[in-house]
Amino acid sequence: MTKQKIWDSIDEHSQMLEKMARDIWENPEVSLEEVYASKVQATALEEEGFNVTLGLKDLPTGIMAEYGQGTPVIGILGEYDALETLSQDSVPERKIRVEGGHGHGCGHNLIGVGAIGAVLAIKEAIERGELQGTIRYYGCPAEEELLGKLFMLRDGYFNNCDVLLYWHPSSNNIPWRAPCLAVTSAVFSFKGLTAHAPQAHIGRSALDAVELMNVGANYLREHIPRDVMFHYSILGNGIAPNTVADRCQSWYMMRAPKRVMLDEVFPRLVDVAKGAAMMTGTTLENVEILGGGNEVICNQTLADLLEKNMKELGGPAFTEEDYVFAKKITDQFSPEQKTMGARVFQIPPEYYDKDLMDKVVSKPSDEILPFSGDCDPSWVFPFGSTFCATWPVGVFTHTWQATACTGSGIGFHGMLFASKTLAGGCYELMTDSDLMKKVKDEFQETSKTLHYKVNIGADAVPKKVKLS
């Protein structure tokens, strides 16, 4: 058989895959609430003959689907959670679909479906007797809250995988080689004492404690390494201003290039919270670690493999309609805005004038990527990933422009390119034992100085943070 046969299989499934991606796009669900998306994907895999588990320990919307037997065992990771308040129609100007609604501004409606296209093609090759081994699809909930893969890893769902593969939407076509930021997500809960506001001296305000913590945290910034950053949001307490708030919470995400840096600095943020409680006569009732992730460990052999397949494919098969759509979006950017967006996704300067990246970029880099994920499985298993263009040059993630594109032909054609890239990588790993050995040898060498520990407790359960 040839790899082309596997790629042809993805083309044969393209209408089904595009419809699934669009259906999930039209029914956006935020972290831990991905009931529709997980059901659609699990049903499709079950109908194709996979052994499917929908609902993993503590993750009702988690999926593990498997076909084949024996080794190698290759897992492909998918995601499907949307973002709050990013509702947008699939048009190149701002047009909200549902007032206050959610949207796929990070392209997660494409990630899982693209992975499914790859595992279906590999399954068919195994079924025909042309490949041997086991192919798995992992539907990973709540990536946006940095916890799905973390809990799945803790609970053993990735056990005995030889390799994990992944892709993510982007404005560029480039293998993932450099680390991203490690992150810790935590909620600080303060407890005070209610009182009628005109007699506030009787009460103790948990809201005051949150505000003082945030002030102290901002002063802390000057005295921690410059590479450490954090962001916070005050969570609603449901109390009107005529009552002293006896409860209030602040949600923090702290990021750094290395997990060890967070381990050193995060306790200082906790001390700031304790000080705020002392100043207000309240109690720091709880510091709950929700999730997070270590910096990713990228297997360069797998990155080389995915890049090879991307170059063989040549790039996404965008249509003339896609280019017209992209230009209408990029025309809204100033040159400075477009350049800034291009740099984030490592697009070389010679391509800044393009509207859509239909080329494959080979740019080895050790530059830290300015985002985070629940990337801990990469510390335990060889991990390879790539970025594929699903929106125009200059577009950032978590924007209405990204949402518009992930529901359009641009997103779907980028997704099919990613699906073929992953399937091609699987094919080579299943037919070349020397390649698999090289992957594992690199992982052993890279990980020998790493000491992984799960960043959540053994009894922790995934928690959806309510913003109001």
> Biggest β-sheet: count, sense, barrel?
7 strands, mixed
**Helix/sheet category:** alpha/beta
How many strands appear in the DSSP assignment? 12
Strand order of the largest sheet: 1-2-4-3-5-12-6
CATH topology of the largest domain: Aminopeptidase
Task: Summarize the structure in words.
With 468 residues, the protein is of the alpha/beta class. It folds into two domains: 3-179 and 296-447, Zn peptidases (Aminopeptidase); 181-293, Alpha-Beta Plaits (2-Layer Sandwich). Helices cover 38% and strands 19% of the residues. The protein contains 13 helices and twelve strands. It has helices at 3-12, 14-26, 35-47, 108-127, 148-154, 206-220, 259-280, 300-313, 320-330, 335-344, 400-406, 409-431, 433-447; strands at residues 51-56, 59-69, 73-78, 133-139, 163-170, 174-175, 180-191, 229-235, 247-256, 283-293, 369-372, 383-389. A seven-stranded mixed beta sheet has the order 1-2-4-3-5-12-6. Strands 7, 8, 9, 10 and 11 form a five-stranded mixed beta sheet that branches. A hairpin with a 2-residue loop joins strand 1 (51-56) and strand 2. Helix 6 packs across helix 7 (259-280). 53% of the residues are buried. The mean pLDDT is 94.
